[in-house]
Specification:
790 residues, alpha/beta, 6-stranded mixed beta sheet, flat
C-alpha cells in the first residue's frame, strides 16, 4: 500500500492506539508490523478471530495474559550456546507458566463446549497449539529465586560451599573485630570498622602507623591519610574464602549452563509457544480495541462494493456524526459537495481509513450490516501540501500527486480526491476535474472526490455511473450538521450565509440577480430537496422515537402480565397445597379414629372407612380440577400450519373466527364476528384441535362428575335377583367411570342364591378384574370385594 496514502489517512495513529491494548512486547511488535493485505480469505479469517475474542470479552471470559515476556532475544542467545543469567531464566519460567495456564484455560472451555456448539472454534484451535514445559519450569523455580539469584538448594555442592563461605567469613570478621575493639590498636585505627577491598577483608589504619601494623596494604584513601590493611593473622583465612568464592561461582555457572542447555533443547517448541502467545495477545488487543470503538465485523467482498452504515472516524475523540455512504453498486464514482468545514474531508478519510482497518483484520466503527471491499491499491490526495523549497504552489503540489495516482491506479482500485481541481482558475479547474474523473470512471476505478464546482454536480447528475452526495448545512444556526446525504448535490449557501451575517439585503439581491437563470433554478431545486429531506429525516427520527417508546411499553406490559400470571399461579398453588394439607391432616385423624373404633369392636367399621375414603377422594379431585383448569387456561396447542378458511379460536379474546389470509408465516388476518384482526399464530388455536381436546376431556369430566356421586359400596340386601343384577351392572359402570379401583357389593348371607347370582354376573363383566368374599372384619360371606380394571 502506498506510504503517502497510509500517512494522510493517519493509519499509523490507529496502530499507536492498538498498541495500548497489547499485553506483551511480542504482541506490540505484531501491531507494529501490521499492514493492510489483499487476500480475501485471510482477511475474513482474521476478522472472525477478532469477533470470537470480542464475544469472549463481552461474556467476561477473559484469557489469562499475565506473566508473558518477550523471549526471542533470550532464546536466540540460548540456542547459540551463551549461558543465560538468572533474570533470563525467570522470564522463561514466567512465560512458560503463562502458556500452561492459557492452555488449561482453553481446555477447560473446550470441556464446557463438548455438550453444545463451540462459539470460539478459531481461538480454541490457536490456544490448543500451545506447548507446556513444566519440567523446565520446575527446574528453574527450584534453582532461581525471585530476584534472579541462584538458590543455595540448587545443588548440594553449592549449599556446602555457601555454608563454608559463611563460616570462614564469620571467623574473619570475629578476628578483625578483635583488632577493632581491642585496646592494643586503638590509636592506629582510623575508623572502628571492618571493610572490604578487592574481595579481602581489611581495617582502615592511619598512614603514620603503616610500619607498626603487621599486614598487607590493599588500598589507600584519596587523601593518603588512611591505609586499608589486611592483618597477617587473617591472610590465610581470606585466601581460603577467596578460593571458596571462586568454587561457588564455578558451581553457579555450571547450574545456569545446565538450565540453559535444557531450555535450548526445547528451542523450537518454546519459540512456537511464544509466537502463539503473541498472536493471541494480538487478537485480543484487536478485540479490546473493537469494543472501545463499538466496532463491528463488516461483510467483505472483492467486487469494489462499499456500503457503510453509520460509519465513524475512529480518531475523532469528540463524538463523531456517523455517515451512511455507498459506492460500487450502480455507480463507481461519487462527487461530494457542500460548504467548507462541513465534513467532506472527514468523509473521505473515514472511507479510506476504515478500508485500511478492514484490510488489516480490524473491526470497523460502524453498524451491523456494513459491507466493505478489498482494494489492491488505495490512493489519496488530501490536504494542502505546497512546497516552498520546491517552489510548488497548492495547485502544482496537488497536480504532482494526481499525475502519480493516474499513472499507478488500476481497475477496482480506490482513489480519494479532496477539492479536485482547486487552486487555479475556476473554469479551468472545473474542466480539468471533470476530465480526470471521467478518465478514472471509464477505467472502472472507484473514485470519491470532494469539490465546490457546480459543473461537477451537473456532471454527476448527467453521467451514467456517477452519483452526487452532499454534506448538510443548517442555515438556522449557520453551522454544518456533518450528515452525508447520498443522491443530492450540495449548495454553497454563500448568499444565505452572507445575508444572515448582516450583509445588506440589497447587495445580496444584486448578487443573486447576477446568477444565471439556470443556476438559480437548480439552486432552488436543491434547496427544496434539502428542505424535504430534512423534514423527512425529522419525521423518521420521530417515528423511531415513537417506535422505541411503543416497544418499551409493550415490553413493560408483557412483563406486568407475566408477573400477574406468576402471582396468580403462586396463589392458586399455595391454596391447593393448603387444601391438600388439610385433607391429609383430616385423613390421618380419621384413620386414627377408625383404629380406635376397631379396637373397641365398632360394627360396620369397614363401611364407614370406605365412605370416609370416598369423601377424601372427592375433595382431592376437586382440588386437582382447580389446578388442571388453571393450566388449561395458560397453555394451548399452537397450530403448525394455517390456511385461508381454517376455523380458529383467538385465545386472548376467547373468540372463534375464520382465517382470511396469511400475511406471513407468523401473522394472519382473522374474521371474528364483525371484526377483522391481525393475529400472531401463537395466539391462535385450530377449532378442530379444540373439539378433539374437548372429546378427550369429556371422559375425564364424566369421571369427575361420577366421582362426586358414586359410593364405594352397593347394598343389595332385600333386593330380588333380577333387580339386583341390573343394579349391580349399572353400579359397576358408574364406579368404573368414576375411577374407583375397589368396591364392595353387600348381598347378605341368606341362602346364598343372591350371592351366587352376583358372582355369575361378575365373572363375565368387562369392568371386573377379580373379586373375592370379604374377610373377617370386611363382612365375611355377606360381602363381595370387587377389583375393577384400569
Amino acid at each position: 500500500m502506498e506510504q503517502h496514502t497510509l500517512r494522510v489517512l493517519e493509519y499509523e495513529k490507529i496502530k499507536d492506539e492498538l498498541k495500548n491494548y497489547a499485553s506483551s512486547l511480542a504482541g506490540k511488535e505484531l501491531v507494529e508490523r501490521l499492514q493492510p493485505v489483499i487476500d480475501l480469505e485471510y482477511i475474513e479469517e482474521r476478522l472472525k478471530e477478532v469477533s470470537e475474542a470480542r464475544r469472549m470479552l463481552d461474556e467476561k471470559t477473559n484469557a489469562p495474559f499475565g506473566g508473558i515476556r518477550d523471549l526471542r532475544d533470550i532464546m536466540l542467545r540460548a540456542e547459540k550456546g551463551m549461558v543465560l543469567n538468572g533474570h533470563d531464566l525467570l522470564d522463561i519460567s514466567s512465560t512458560l507458566y503463562a502458556a500452561r495456564r492459557m492452555r488449561t484455560f482453553f481446555l477447560e472451555l473446550e470441556d464446557e463446549w463438548r455438550q453444545g456448539t463451540n462459539p470460539y472454534p478459531r481461538i480454541l484451535r490457536i490456544g490448543k497449539g500451545l506447548h507446556t514445559f513444566q519440567p523446565i519450569e520446575d527446574a528453574i523455580n527450584k534453582a532461581i529465586d525471585n530476584s534472579g539469584e541462584v538458590l543455595d538448594n540448587a545443588s548440594s555442592k553449592l549449599r556446602s560451599l555457601r555454608n563454608q563461605i559463611r563460616t570462614v567469613g564469620a571467623r574473619i570478621k570475629d578476628k578483625l573485630d578483635s583488632y577493632v575493639s581491642g585496646s592494643a590498636y586503638q590509636k592506629m585505627i582510623q575508623d572502628a570498622i571492618v571493610t572490604i577491598r578487592g574481595d579481602r577483608y581489611v581495617i582502615p589504619i592511619k598512614s603514620e602507623y603503616k610500619g607498626s601494623f603487621d599486614g598487607i596494604i590493599h588500598d589507600r584513601s584519596s587523601s593518603g591519610a588512611t591505609l586499608f590493611i589486611e592483618p597477617m593473622a587473617v591472610v590465610q583465612m581470606n585466601n581460603q574464602l577467596r578460593q571458596l568464592t571462586s568454587e561457588e561461582q564455578d558451581e553457579v555457572y555450571r547450574i545456569l549452563k545446565e538450565l540453559t542447555v535444557k531450555v535450548a533443547m526445547e528451542y523450537d517448541g518454546i519459540m512456537s509457544t511464544v509466537d502463539i502467545l503473541a498472536r493471541l495477545d494480538f487478537i485480543f488487543a484487536k478485540a479490546d480495541y473493537s469494543r472501545a470503538l463499538k466496532a463491528v465485523e463488516p461483510a467483505v467482498n472483492d467486487k469494489g462494493l462499499i456500503d457503510l452504515c453509520q460509519g465513524r472516524h475512529p480518531l475523532l475523540k469528540v463524538k463523531p456524526v456517523p455517515i451512511d455512504v455507498s459506492l460500487g453498486d450502480g455507480f463507481n464514482t461519487l462527487v461530494i459537495t457542500g460548504p467548507n468545514t462541513g465534513g467532506k474531508t472527514v468523509t473521505l478519510k473515514t472511507v479510506g481509513l476504515l478500508t485500511l482497518m478492514m484490510q488489516s483484520g480490524l473491526h470497523v466503527p460502524a453498524n451491523e450490516g456494513s459491507e466493505m471491499s478489498i482494494f489492491k491499491g488505495i490512493f489519496a490526495d488530501i490536504g494542502d501540501e505546497q512546497s516552498i523549497e520546491q517552489s510548488l504552489s497548492t495547485f502544482s503540489s496537488h497536480m504532482t500527486k494526481i499525475i502519480k495516482i493516474l499513472k499507478n491506479a488500476q481497475k477496482n482500485d480506490l482513489v480519494l480526491f479532496d477539492e479536485l481541481g482547486a487552486g487555479t482558475d475556476p473554469a479551468e479547474g472545473a474542466s480539468l476535474a471533470m476530465a480526470i474523473m471521467d478518465y478514472l470512471h471509464k477505467q472502472e476505478i472507484r473514485t470519491i472526490a470532494t469539490t465546490h464546482y457546480s459543473e461537477l454536480k451537473t456532471y454527476a447528475y448527467s453521467e451514467e455511473g456517477v452519483e452526487n452526495a452532499s454534506v448538510e448545512f443548517d442555515l438556522e444556526t449557520l453551522s454544518p450538521t456533518y450528515r452525508l446525504i447520498m443522491g443530492i448535490p450540495g449548495r454553497s449557501n454563500a448568499l444565505e450565509i452572507a445575508l444572515r451575517l448582516g450583509l445588506p439585503k440589497s447587495i445580496v439581491e444584486l448578487a443573486r440577480s447576477g446568477l444565471s437563470s439556470e443556476d438559480a433554478v437548480v439552486d432552488q431545486m436543491i434547496k427544496d430537496i434539502e428542505e424535504n429531506n430534512r423534514k423527512t429525516h425529522k419525521e423518521s427520527q420521530e417515528a423511531q422515537r415513537l417506535k422505541y417508546q411503543m416497544e418499551r411499553l409493550k415490553a413493560d406490559y408483557e412483563k406486568r402480565i407475566q408477573n400477574l400470571e406468576e402471582e396468580r399461579d403462586s396463589i392458586l398453588n399455595k391454596a391447593a397445597e393448603d387444601a391438600r394439607k388439610i385433607i391429609n391432616d383430616s385423613k390421618s385423624e380419621a384413620e386414627e379414629l377408625i383404629k380406635k373404633a376397631r379396637s373397641v369392636g365398632m360394627k360396620n367399621l369397614e363401611q364407614v372407612n370406605l365412605e370416609l375414603k370416598h369423601k377424601f377422594t372427592e375433595a382431592a379431585n376437586k382440588i386437582n380440577q382447580v389446578s388442571r383448569g388453571r393450566k388449561q387456561v395458560k397453555t394451548h396447542k399452537i397450530p403448525e400450519k394455517l390456511e385461508s378458511g381454517d376455523q380458529v379460536r383467538i385465545v386472548s379474546l376467547n373468540q372463534k373466527g375464520n382465517v382470511l389470509e396469511a400475511l406471513n408465516e407468523k401473522e394472519f388476518v382473522v374474521q371474528a364476528g364483525i371484526m377483522k384482526v391481525t393475529v400472531n399464530i401463537k395466539d391462535l388455536e385450530k377449532v378442530e384441535a379444540i373439539e378433539e381436546t374437548v372429546q378427550k376431556q369429556r371422559f375425564t369430566k364424566i369421571s369427575r362428575s361420577k366421582a362426586g356421586a358414586v359410593l364405594p359400596s352397593l347394598d343389595l340386601r332385600g333386593t330380588r335377583y333380577e333387580e339386583a343384577r341390573e343394579k349391580t351392572d349399572k353400579y359397576l359402570d358408574d364406579a368404573y367411570l368414576a375411577g374407583l379401583k375397589l368396591v364392595e357389593v353387600i348381598h347378605g348371607k341368606g341362602t346364598g342364591a343372591l350371592r351366587e347370582g352376583i358372582h355369575d354376573l361378575l365373572r363375565g363383566h368387562h369392568h371386573v378384574s377379580e373379586f373375592r368374599l370379604g374377610n373377617e372384619g370386611e363382612g365375611g360371606m355377606g360381602v363381595t370385594i370387587v377389583k375393577l380394571r384400569d
